[in-house]
Amino acid sequence: MNPTTIQIIGSLLFAIAILHTFSAGFLTRLVKRYPSHAGLWELFAEVEFVFGFWAGVLIVFTALAAIGTEKGSFHAVTEYLESCSFIEPLFVLAIMIVAASRPVLLFASVIVRAASRLLPMPRAIAFYFTILTVVPVLSSFITEPAAMTLAAMILRDAYYRKGMSARLMYATIGVLFVNISIGGTLTNFAAPPVLMVAKTWQWDSWFMLSHIGWRSTIAVFVNALAVSLIFRKELLQFEVEERSDGHSDIPIPVTALHLVFLSLIVLFAHHPHVFLCVLLAFLAFAHAYPRFQDHLILRESLMVSCFLAGLVTLGGQQSWWLQPLLSSMSSTTVYYGAMTLTAVTDNAALTYLGSLVQGLSDEFKYALVAGAVTGGGLTVIANAPNPAGMSILQGHFEGGKVNPLGLLAAAIPPTLVAIAVFRLL
Fold it and tell me: How far apart are CA 401 and CA 295, in angstroms?
């Protein structure tokens, strides 16, 4: 395949954006060195802003390249943007705002606390273990972005805010990212990389559960149990409240209405005109009854949406090298290839490109999707919900940022567990 000039530029900008994500620590230090431009350096140090910025650069190049052509700059830019699907960034925006509202968060916390009481473990360990197992499995039904938001918020309030060690913070976020990535595979609609191929390959929820989902559940359990046991001494130092603060102040009808809002957004996840109307209705209700809300995470949600929109815009120019690369692999090679490529490109984009290849064997299809979800926790860009969890938890890490290499190192052990489950069982 002969790439166009814009495709080559798009790939170069994509590579620059990836390198940019690793420079957050350096840019943060520039804030102190050049305080008069602190706001600018802080913005460029935001991982969520990186891909949106470089996508903007791509749009500028697209406009400049079309000057003097028959289409013209305006039509060239609008034609490309309209060819991209921004449903996922918009959905994540809506689901993050509603899922992180106080009634929904407290309701989820009550469920997790109730489930943790059934375990024969000390309360602090049982609660931690339940967050990293029950919520990822629930992601198969409430979608991965919603589960990531809920799990990250509960972990933040119960553990991160109370002074976790750096080792435990990284181990937790590594397991969380991997477990959410593989935990959404019990159905055919909750995980973005599965959603991209389900209709084309006619994979229903029973197929997902019987081929991938049960394996994922085993890996989720093993990962959560391992990190809970390894850090059991530190976890025992935390005191878990028997009841969430403020729960009794929220009437049951208010909580029920919030769950209705959340359910409608999930139900109409592929219809942005509908779920954005639901979001507006939710915001109107939240504004009318502020006493039932904490600070809505509007900024965080918008930044994550910007990140994903930028990833979609840049990712649209990567098919010229990704698709031939995938089609040249065997079913065994594609598993590890997909897992590796997922670390540098969104796993949903990867499986979508795979769905365009004709004549794939069933073994190849399984390996592609399994590999894509296996590698979904290695980097912040590997899986669409990861930026949501990052934005909620990163303020508690040193310098207010999650070190990309630290995340990679923390995610490797649970990823190896997922590899063992998918390849050996």
Answer: 21
CA–centroid distance for 157 within its chain: 20
Global pTM reads: 0.82
Confidence of residue 347 (pLDDT cuts 50, 70, 90): confident
Question: CA 394 to CA 166: how far, in whole Å?
Answer: 12
Q: Distance between CA atoms of 366 and 348, rounded to whole angstroms?
A: 14
Name the residue among 137, 79, 93, 87 with its Cα closest to residue 112: 137
Query: For the chain, what percent of residues have pLDDT higher than 70?
Result: 97
At 36, the amino acid letter reads S
What DSSP string describes 254-284? HHHHHHHHHHHHHHTTT-HHHHHHHHHHHHH
Q: DSSP letter string over 92-160?
A: HHHHHHHHTSHHHHHHHHHHHHHHHTTSSS-HHHHHHHHHHHHHHHHHHHH-HHHHHHHHHHHHHHHTG
Q: Is 12 exposed, middle or buried (0-12, 13-18, 19+ CB in 10 A)?
A: middle
Distance CA 231, CA 229 (A): 5
The sign of the torsion formed by the CA atoms of 168, 170, 173, 175 equals: negative
Distance CA 66, CA 23 (A): 32
Average of pLDDT values for 104-132? 91
pLDDT (tens digit per residue) in 249-261: 789 999 999 999 9
Say which residues have a Cβ less than 8 Å from residue 367's Cβ, sequence separation at least 6.
Answer: 331, 332, 334, 335, 338
Return the residue matching tokens 């919603």.
146
Angle between helices 252-267 and 102-116 (to 10 degrees): 100
Helices (H), 22-101: 24-33, 38-44, 47-65, 72-83, 87-99
Instruction: Bin 85: left if φ > 0, else alpha if -120 < ψ < 50, else beta.
Output: beta
Cβ-in-10-Å burial (0-12, 13-18, 19+) of 161 comes to exposed
Q: The tokens of 157 are what? A: 């309030």
210, 141, 174: which is closest to 425 by C-alpha? 210
**Is residue 38 within 8 Å of 31, Cβ to Cβ?**
yes
Question: Rounded distance, CA 247 to CA 275, Å?
Answer: 27
